[in-house]
Amino acid sequence: MQVGSRTFDFRREVAVMAIVNRTPDSFYDKGRTFALSAAVEHALAQVEEGADLVDVGGVKAAPGEEVPLAEELDRIVPFVEAFREHSDCPVSVDTFRAAVAAAALDAGADVVNDVSGMVEPQVADVVAARPGSALVVMHPGGPPRTRPFRPVYDPDCTTDVVRTCAALAAEAQRRGVPAARIIVDPGHDFGKTTFQSLEVTRRLGELAALGYPVLVALSRKDFLGEALGGLAAEERLEASLACAALSVQAGARLVRVHDTAATVRAMRATEAILGLRQPPVALRGLD
Questions:
Q1: Exactly one of 221, 236, 253, 268 is catalytic; which is it?
Q2: CA–CA distance, 228 with 202 (Å, rounded to integer)
Q3: Where are the alpha helices (DSSP H) in 150-236?
Q4: Is 220:173 a contact under the CB 8 Å cutoff?
Q5: E strands, the chain, where?
Q6: pLDDT of 109-148, one tens digit each?
Q7: pLDDT 10s digits, 160-192
Q8: Annotation says 60 is catalytic
Q9: Is residue 150 annotated as a catalytic residue, yes or no?
């Protein structure tokens, strides 16, 4: 898949997508990269640490204060423009609004990462009208910016994830997005209990079987903290790395993360263990 300046062979490599939050209230960085200069500096640092893409969002996924369209545009478009002055690293924009997606792609972004389940289907029209751009569709498990309350899926969560992602991808194609430009995301923690997010991880191969590249956005999420007895986000790095590695073994090929350097090393090791790539140095026992 060609994404901006990069060509990814997802048969043999894993892409690390670094998170950049232009929000004052994100669950982990809590506004550390809200200012434009801080966001650009952070994004460039992630590229130096080995990020293959950067993903910028202007509205946090969890419930919170309403962010008007004009405000989201002001958080996203200047970032894309400023980042583009310094780097050709592919840029993904986390938004469910078609107007934001269009403005971001026109400013130089490459991917629209829609975590809403295409609540605005016109997002697909925006991507289709801009050849070379890509679309991430995700299983949201409910309306945007809401928390789950005892969600129940028929017959089970993973089956619903696969069915929903297949339907979203089909709708995107109906609107003109080539299948080769579509990525699917199971939506860890979105509309899911901890048990359901763990189940989806174990059965991720069922989603990968659809044939689209699978993105997992599980970095420091609640289900990992609860799996370890209620650890805070600041204490979930090891769990995030373990879950990312297991997800890749099950078929994921993009990992959206807060901890770029550590994840890049974990992913390169995982690729080598799985035989997806040859170690760049292999002298042990030979010299």
A1: 221
A2: 17
A3: 157-174, 194-202, 204-208, 222-227
A4: no
A5: 2-3, 6-7, 15-21, 53-57, 91-94, 111-114, 134-138, 182-185, 215-216, 254-257
A6: 999 999 999 999 999 999 999 999 999 999 999 888 888 8
A7: 999 999 999 999 999 999 999 999 999 999 999
A8: no
A9: no
Considering only CA atoms, which of 247, 249, 205 is closest in space to residue 224?
247
C-alpha span between 76 and 68 (Å, rounded): 13
Q: Of these residues, 192, 220, 256, 268, which one is catalytic?
A: 256
Structure tokens at 245: 């590695």
Task: For 46-82, give one letter per residue: b (16+ CB within 10 A) or e.
Answer: bbebebbbbbbbbbbbeeeeebeeeebbebbbebbeb
| pTM greater than 0.90 | yes
- Please report the sign of the dihedral spanned by the C-alpha atoms of residue 151, residue 240, residue 57, residue 26: positive
Three-class secondary structure of residue 127 per DSSP: helix
Give the model confidence (pLDDT) of 64-96 as tens digits: 889 999 999 999 999 999 999 999 999 999 999
Q: How many CA atoms lie within 13 A of 58 on its CB side?
A: 24
- Whether the Cβ atoms of residue 86 and residue 53 lie closer than 8 Å to each other: no
78 within 8 A of 40, measured Cβ to Cβ: no
